[in-house]
Each structure stands twice: as structure tokens, then as C-alpha cells.
Specification:
Order of helices and strands: EEEEEEEEEE
Structural class: mainly beta
Radius of gyration: 13 Å
Largest sheet: 6 strands, mixed
Length: 115
């Protein structure tokens, strides 16, 4: 079973930046497509960004140009650099494989953006 631990969330003012980290267990991390997902209060969980094992990236329209996903396979870690944060980015952020492994959802990390 893949275990994922997210960190780096916090409270930030609109326009600020945060970098999230997600460390995964598993010897084959470098072969996985990884995603950052987020769930705002009262809304469904959605994909914010993903990165393939080759480094190809995808971003939801709502974060394109502001968020950057990257990975360090030597550290089994995927990152999400979030710049120019908006109030609407407030959510719990989770990482997982993509497509997501249902049994691997972690507790996520809370990101709160104040106006």
C-alpha cells in the first residue's frame, strides 16, 4: 500500500506563496503519475495538477500560471509551488497517484488564504 504524507500548508494572505510537499513510500515512485488534489469546504475533491514520471505536467484552469508541480524521484517527493494565492484556493490539499489510489488518501494539508 502506498503511504503519502503531505506538509507545507498554512495561513497566508492573498497574493502570497506556499510550497507543499508530499513524500511517498514505495520503491516504484519514479514510475507513478502523481497528482495534487484539493477539496474546499462544501465542494468535491478536484485535481489541481499532475505530473507524469517523465515530468509532463497538467494544471486545472483555475491554477494555471500560478501553481507549479515538480518531483524529486530520489526523495520520493512531489511538490506544489503555489504563487499569487487567492481566497478561492482555500482548501485541504492532498497528493495521490493519478488516477488516485483510494486506499492511499492521507490527511492532507490545510491551506487557508485570507483576503
Amino acid at each position: 500500500q502506498v503511504q503519502l504524507v503531505e506538509s507545507g500548508g498554512g495561513l497566508v494572505q492573498a497574493g502570497g506563496s506556499l510550497r507543499l510537499s508530499c513524500t511517498a513510500s514505495g520503491r516504484t515512485f519514479s514510475t507513478w503519475t502523481m497528482g495534487w488534489f484539493r477539496q474546499a469546504p462544501g465542494k468535491d475533491r478536484e485535481l489541481a495538477a499532475r505530473i507524469t514520471w517523465r515530468g509532463n505536467t497538467y494544471y486545472a484552469d483555475s491554477v494555471k500560471g500560478r501553481f507549479t508541480i515538480s518531483r524529486d524521484n530520489a526523495k520520493n517527493t512531489v511538490y506544489l509551488q503555489m504563487n499569487n494565492l487567492k481566497v478561492e484556493d482555500t482548501a485541504v490539499y492532498y497528493c495521490n497517484t493519478h488516477p488516485p489510489n483510494v486506499s492511499s488518501w492521507g490527511q492532507g494539508t490545510q491551506v487557508t488564504v485570507s483576503s
